[in-house]
Design brief:
Blueprint (H helix, E strand, L loop, with lengths): L2 H10 L6 E5 L3 H4 L8 H5 L8 E4 L1 H7 L8 E4 L1 E2 L12 E2 L3 H6 L4 E7 L5 H16 L5 E6 L9 H14 L3 E5 L5 H6 L5 E4 L7 H13 L4 E3 L2 H4 L4 H14 L3 H12 L4
Parallel strand pairs: 1-2, 1-10, 2-3, 3-6, 6-7, 7-8, 8-9, 9-10
Antiparallel strand pairs: 4-5
Helix pairs in contact: 9-11, 9-12, 11-12
Length: 265
């Protein structure tokens, strides 16, 4: 592995081997998502607690201070929306020259295994890896397995993660599944980070699945809505960070969350 690739990965995955990525790229297919109407304002109080921020070039250019101290993961796939026929019908929308011009530490794109556009999405991943490897920029594959929620189980997630790694992704983002998540991680030869998915009902649910996923081998998380759409986002991200980097249990994280909410920590 080249020095540049190693250096960029070391900026993302911290010295303890773990990571907390904060994605705010949802507008690329959802438009002005709740709490991301002004993304720069949303992320400002959260930046100190994230290891990297994931977003599109448009939001980066227009909403984020260039002096941001955290590395950027640039979302480079898109061209499909929630009102279109199929979100899986994505293409690459950002060039490698733009990736370098914006000083991104890594790039991300979705891969839709099992969808009508599986071949297109995996071919795009291969093209992106080829382009980025020339410049030492790591690619994070954001895995998806079609619309059906029942496909978010270990056998499908393991398939998707392994395929993405085989094609050359340096990091894989995937959904957590309660049963056999270790099968997903063990079958993937590159680091796995957990996606948040839809916002859950309670903060404790987030603490539970983050802790369990970490115990089963994930190196960290890439959580958005379950942080910045919550009533207390700063408390939420600090508690999640404590699970990832300080080995807090869900009970300890919940206690910390309540203390921060109350202004006692």
């Amino acid at each position: 592995m080249d020095w540049g690739m190693k250096n960029r990965l070391s900026r993302l995955i911290q010295p303890d081997g773990k990571a907390l990525f904060l994605p705010v790229d949802h507008g690329y297919f959802q438009g002005p998502t709740h709490m991301l109407e002004k993304p720069g304002e949303t992320i400002k109080p959260l930046i100190p607690y994230a290891d990297a921020i994931m977003l599109t070039r448009g939001v980066l250019r227009n909403c984020v201070d260039p002096a941001i101290p955290k590395p950027i993961i640039l979302r480079v796939s898109g061209a499909a929306t929630v009102v279109g026929e199929d979100l899986a019908n994505e293409n690459l929308v950002t060039s490698v020259q733009e990736i370098l011009r914006l000083n991104a530490m890594a790039v991300s794109m979705s891969v839709f295994v099992g969808s009508k556009y599986e071949h297109q999405s995996l071919s795009n991943l291969a093209k992106l890896v080829d382009a980025c490897e020339d410049y030492g920029v790591p690619v994070m594959a954001v895995t998806a397995v079609g619309r059906e929620l029942e496909k978010r189980e270990a056998r499908y997630l393991a398939l998707c993660c392994r395929v993405a790694a085989e094609i050359g992704a340096r990091v894989v983002k995937t959904y957590y599944c309660a049963e056999k998540f270790e099968k997903v991680v063990d079958g993937c030869p590159v680091p796995v980070v957990i996606a948040g998915g839809p916002k859950v009902d309670t903060q404790r649910e987030v603490f539970d699945f983050v802790y369990d996923g970490m115990q089963k081998g994930a190196v960290g998380v890439n959580l958005g809505r379950n942080i910045w759409q919550t009533e207390h986002p700063v408390a939420a991200i600090q508690a999640i960070r404590a699970i990832i980097h300080e080995n807090y249990t869900p009970n300890e994280a919940e206690d910390l969350f309540e203390q921060i909410k109350a202004g006692k920590a």
